[in-house]
Amino acid sequence: MALAGMAGSDEVVFEGANMLTRGGTTVPESLLFYGGTVEDHKKVKLYTLLPDKAMTQKTAADGVKDLKSSTYALKPYYSQLEKKEGRWELQTSGNSSVEGNPLPALNPLKQLEELESMEKNITEEAGAGRGTSVLRIELTPSEARKQLSAELEKEMQNLRPKTPESAENNTEADQAVSKALEKLWQKKNNELQQKLKQANVETVYHLTVDKKHNLPRRLTLNRKVSYSGEMMNKSENETYVSKVDFTGYR
Question: What's the pTM?
Answer without folding.
Answer: 0.82
